[in-house]
């Protein structure tokens, strides 16, 4: 099927079924017993009725997790508060250009082999941020028991997956660009309505690096050093729309098309 950029992507689902084959083997001296079993094999066995299903409330989440439990809501909030006071974070810029770096994710910190084998497992949170002022990925490790940042790592040219806020900003930048024409036309074809705001789309994305992912024109030559995303938009409760050759550079706040 040939289609140009922006055409609504149609998918087909294929169901595969398997057939189980049972093989019976009769050993010497067991033919008589086997015949008796065969006579009853076709009889339907009575199965006790299962009790009706019950919906139970989720257990109350404590303030602190234990061992390798996922971070609790309270731990997530405390980790963010502990890390956010660093001057490195307050002096940066987020995806919209406002003061403060862009928070990407907070995860349970990894353990060293010695810590994993110990009787007491420390609880640490790893918070990742992106500073659009310096185009740097920042990772801060917070010791939740001590209530302080115990490690900071800053890297350039390293890109973590985009956050929900970054995907939304990328769509808004795209809609303001002349390159959004095909996307808007395909949305109108699929829904009969005009595409005017980012909330009309569900969006997934992948980080785009010009050197590794595809040949890129000059406008995208810094992708990898800059934070660039390739969008996969979907009509809310509707079909996907192909926009794979449109790249949004969140660092320069620009949109370009791959050749």
Secondary structure elements and pairings:
Layout: E1 8-9, H1 31-41, H2 73-84, H3 87-90, E2 102-108, H4 113-117, E3 124-131, E4 136-143, E5 148-155, H5 164-175, H6 181-191, E6 201-207, H7 210-213, E7 228-235, E8 240-241, E9 246-249, E10 254-257
Antiparallel strand pairs: 1-8, 2-3, 3-4, 4-5, 6-7, 7-9, 9-10
Protein name: Tat pathway signal sequence domain protein
Structure description:
23% of the residues lie in helices and 22% in strands. It has 259 residues and is α+β, with helices and mostly antiparallel strands. It has a four-stranded antiparallel sheet. The protein is globular, with a radius of gyration of 28 Å. The chain starts with 7 loop residues before the first strand and ends with a strand. This is Tat pathway signal sequence domain protein.
Termini separation:
20 Å
Beta percentage is 15-25%
Instruction: Give the biggest beta sheet.
Output: 4 strands, antiparallel
Q: Which blocks of ≥5 consecutive residues have pLDDT under 50?
A: 1-27
Q: What is the average of the pLDDT values?
A: 83
Order of helices and strands: EHHHEHEEEHHEHEEEE
Strand runs, count: 10
* Class by SSE composition: alpha+beta
The strand order across the widest sheet is 2-3-4-5
- Helix percent band: 10-25%
Number of H/I helices: 7
Indicate the radius of gyration in whole angstroms. Answer: 28 Å
Shape: globular
């Amino acid at each position: 099927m040939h289609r140009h950029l922006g055409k609504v992507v149609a998918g087909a689902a294929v169901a595969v079924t398997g057939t189980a084959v049972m093989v019976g083997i009769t050993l010497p001296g067991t033919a008589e017993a086997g015949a008796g079993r065969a006579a009853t094999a076709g009889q339907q066995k009575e199965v006790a009725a299962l009790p009706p299903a019950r919906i139970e409330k989720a257990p109350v989440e404590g303030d602190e997790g234990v061992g390798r439990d996922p971070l609790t809501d309270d731990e997530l909030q405390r980790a963010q508060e502990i890390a956010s006071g660093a001057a490195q974070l307050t002096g940066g810029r987020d995806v919209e250009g406002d003061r403060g770096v862009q928070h990407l994710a907070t995860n349970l910190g990894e353990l060293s082999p010695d810590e994993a084998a110990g009787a007491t497992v420390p609880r640490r949170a790893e918070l990742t941020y992106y500073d659009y002022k310096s185009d740097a990925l920042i990772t801060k490790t917070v010791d939740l028991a001590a209530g302080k940042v115990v490690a900071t790592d800053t890297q350039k040219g390293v890109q973590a997956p985009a956050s929900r806020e970054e995907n939304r900003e990328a769509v808004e930048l795209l809609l303001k660009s002349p390159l959004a024409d095909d996307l808007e036309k395909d949305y109108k074809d699929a829904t009969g309505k005009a595409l005017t705001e980012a909330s009309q789309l569900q969006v997934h994305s992948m980080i785009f690096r010009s050197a590794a992912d595809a040949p890129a024109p000059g406008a995208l030559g810094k992708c990898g050093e800059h934070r660039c995303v390739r969008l996969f938009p979907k009509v809310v409760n509707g079909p996907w729309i192909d926009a794979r050759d449109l790249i949004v550079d969140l660092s320069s706040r620009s949109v370009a098309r791959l050749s």
